[in-house]
Amino acid sequence: MDCGNLWRVVLLVCFAAPSLAQKTQLQAHLEHLDGVRNPMAATDEPRLEARRYIKEKFRELGLQVHSQTFNTILKPQYDEQTVSGENLVGIAPGTVGGPVMVVGADYDTPPQSSPLEDNGAGVAALLEVARHFMHETGANGPFQRLNTVIFVAFDLNVKAYGNSHPGKPGSYHFLHQWLWPYINQTSNNFAGAIILDSITKFSTEFGSQYVVQEFKDAFPKASSAIASSGNKGDFLAMFTREDSRSINLANMFTANYVKDRKANMFRLQPMSVRDGLSYVGVLKMFNHQSHHPFWSFRPSEELVPLPALLLTDTDVYRMSQDVCDRPCTPAAFLTRGREGFITKTIDAVTNTLLSLQTERVPVTGAGGKLGVTTPLFLIACVTVISGIIR
Predict the structure, then answer these.
(1) Does the 3-389 domain belong in CATH 3.40.630.10?
(2) pTM, whole model, 2 decimals?
């Protein structure tokens, strides 16, 4: 092999290394999230296993780990029953004590859903955001944490199980009984939440995105953009309220998502929700997801809506380009398209946290922190390439 071709091979390996490492991490997470995690299932072991695994990963990352137990009510047939849930909280404390940010995902599973799609991949992404954030803000990282970030895996999202269940979901209990006291019962101490719920379905096929009339009425601009692309499910949907704090959070996430849009096949589709009759129908499409308790928060009689983004592939309103017959293994599920779509979301969420909750450490002399992240694999690649050129 001549020098020029060898240089190209080394360069390809260098830039493929991060993608391979990310896929390996995601698959390792999904191996612990491939069972039906629901208290009405034949066995509750998959939910308990997921719970153990998430706690273990939070601890490995150096997060302060807390568990919040709560009770909620299910009505699987005729009789109501009380079931116990456990929200899993990992805190990355800041040094200043400014507004807190939350990144959350449900780790349980609706009875009839694919456990990897809903919401195993969301939990895997949550764990990867936490891993990247803690690495970048660690002892040798280029960022210093100023404001606290809380990573939370919600249990028992009963609103996604069906309309017959009267209980409150885990995200409701987390917000009312854990987070609100934690932020001293004032919204000024809260910067916003980013919720990951069904983030794997991606398709460049025409007609793969189903747009109902209620959606067209509520989001005419977004519907027009989707229609102009042939109703392709080639985007991540971002739902947010249309108030100033929510818009600021959405704008920051958008800026981080579109940084490399020319080199990426995925796009972001914002959906701003206002109060009004045109939104009543569309709210029913996604008010079962874990952002909704933030939007509808009432610590007393007064409504105190809190900023929260819902990131989703729109779930049942989209057909996936990659079919994975059940039982679907994590290895078969994590195709190149799915892995790329999830990774794009992980990167954007991580960079949003770094933008809002940290500051870059100044460049220092020998022995100090560097101001630019320089992964070891990249240093090694540059060394090899330099040797080849010489």
Answers:
(1) yes
(2) 0.88
